[in-house]
Protein backbone atom coordinates (compact mmCIF):
# COMPACT_ATOMS: atom_id res chain seq x y z
CA UNK A 1 0.00 0.00 0.00
CA UNK A 2 1.25 3.44 -0.95
CA UNK A 3 0.31 6.86 0.41
CA UNK A 4 0.75 9.87 -1.86
CA UNK A 5 0.18 13.56 -1.08
CA UNK A 6 -1.31 15.85 -3.70
CA UNK A 7 -0.93 19.57 -2.91
CA UNK A 8 -3.70 21.42 -4.76
CA UNK A 9 -3.67 24.56 -2.64
CA UNK A 10 -4.50 27.66 -4.66
CA UNK A 11 -6.47 25.81 -7.35
CA UNK A 12 -10.17 26.56 -7.86
CA UNK A 13 -13.09 24.33 -8.83
CA UNK A 14 -13.10 22.13 -10.89
CA UNK A 15 -9.31 21.65 -10.87
CA UNK A 16 -9.01 19.94 -7.45
CA UNK A 17 -11.42 17.17 -8.47
CA UNK A 18 -9.92 16.80 -11.96
CA UNK A 19 -6.38 16.53 -10.60
CA UNK A 20 -7.53 14.13 -7.85
CA UNK A 21 -9.14 11.90 -10.48
CA UNK A 22 -5.95 11.91 -12.56
CA UNK A 23 -3.75 11.14 -9.54
CA UNK A 24 -5.98 8.22 -8.51
CA UNK A 25 -5.69 6.60 -11.96
CA UNK A 26 -1.95 6.17 -11.33
CA UNK A 27 -2.51 4.38 -8.00
CA UNK A 28 -3.37 0.77 -7.23
CA UNK A 29 -6.58 -0.29 -5.49
CA UNK A 30 -6.20 0.22 -1.75
CA UNK A 31 -3.55 2.94 -2.08
CA UNK A 32 -4.14 6.19 -0.23
CA UNK A 33 -4.10 9.70 -1.62
CA UNK A 34 -3.95 12.73 0.69
CA UNK A 35 -5.35 15.80 -1.06
CA UNK A 36 -4.66 19.30 0.31
CA UNK A 37 -6.91 22.10 -0.95
CA UNK A 38 -7.79 25.73 -0.26
CA UNK A 39 -10.90 25.83 -2.48
CA UNK A 40 -14.03 26.03 -0.28
CA UNK A 41 -16.00 23.99 -2.86
CA UNK A 42 -13.66 21.02 -2.36
CA UNK A 43 -15.47 20.34 0.93
CA UNK A 44 -18.49 19.36 -1.19
CA UNK A 45 -16.82 18.25 -4.43
CA UNK A 46 -14.21 15.76 -3.14
CA UNK A 47 -16.63 13.68 -0.99
CA UNK A 48 -19.15 13.66 -3.87
CA UNK A 49 -16.44 12.56 -6.32
CA UNK A 50 -15.39 9.70 -4.00
CA UNK A 51 -18.97 8.55 -3.50
CA UNK A 52 -19.74 8.59 -7.22
CA UNK A 53 -16.53 6.82 -8.24
CA UNK A 54 -16.21 4.06 -5.65
CA UNK A 55 -13.37 5.53 -3.60
CA UNK A 56 -13.42 5.56 0.22
CA UNK A 57 -13.13 8.95 1.87
CA UNK A 58 -11.18 7.85 4.96
CA UNK A 59 -10.90 11.33 6.49
CA UNK A 60 -11.81 14.93 5.76
CA UNK A 61 -10.65 17.74 7.99
CA UNK A 62 -10.34 21.49 7.98
CA UNK A 63 -6.81 22.83 8.20
CA UNK A 64 -5.43 26.32 8.71
CA UNK A 65 -5.07 26.68 4.95
CA UNK A 66 -8.22 24.85 3.83
CA UNK A 67 -8.94 21.12 3.82
CA UNK A 68 -7.17 17.78 3.89
CA UNK A 69 -8.82 14.65 2.47
CA UNK A 70 -7.54 11.08 2.84
CA UNK A 71 -8.89 8.90 0.03
CA UNK A 72 -8.44 5.16 -0.41
CA UNK A 73 -8.69 4.10 -4.04
CA UNK A 74 -11.54 1.69 -4.62
CA UNK A 75 -10.96 -1.76 -6.08
CA UNK A 76 -13.29 -1.27 -9.03
CA UNK A 77 -12.67 2.44 -9.52
CA UNK A 78 -10.38 3.94 -12.10
Automatic annotation (TrEMBL):
InterPro entries membership: TusA-like, TusA-like_sf
SUPFAM superfamilies listed in its UniProt record: SirA-like
Span of domain UPF0033: 6-30
Signal peptide: none
Pfam families attached to this UniProt entry: TusA (PF01206)
CDD domains per the UniProt record, alphabetical: SirA_YedF_YeeD
PROSITE patterns xrefs: UPF0033
Protein family (similarity comment): Belongs to the sulfur carrier protein TusA family.
Name of the protein this chain belongs to: tRNA 2-thiouridine synthesizing protein A
Natural source organism: Roseibium denhamense
Lineage, top ranks: Bacteria, Pseudomonadati, Pseudomonadota, Alphaproteobacteria, Hyphomicrobiales
Amino acid sequence: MTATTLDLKGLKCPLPVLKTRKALTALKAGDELVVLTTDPMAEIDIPHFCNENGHALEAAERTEAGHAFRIRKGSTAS
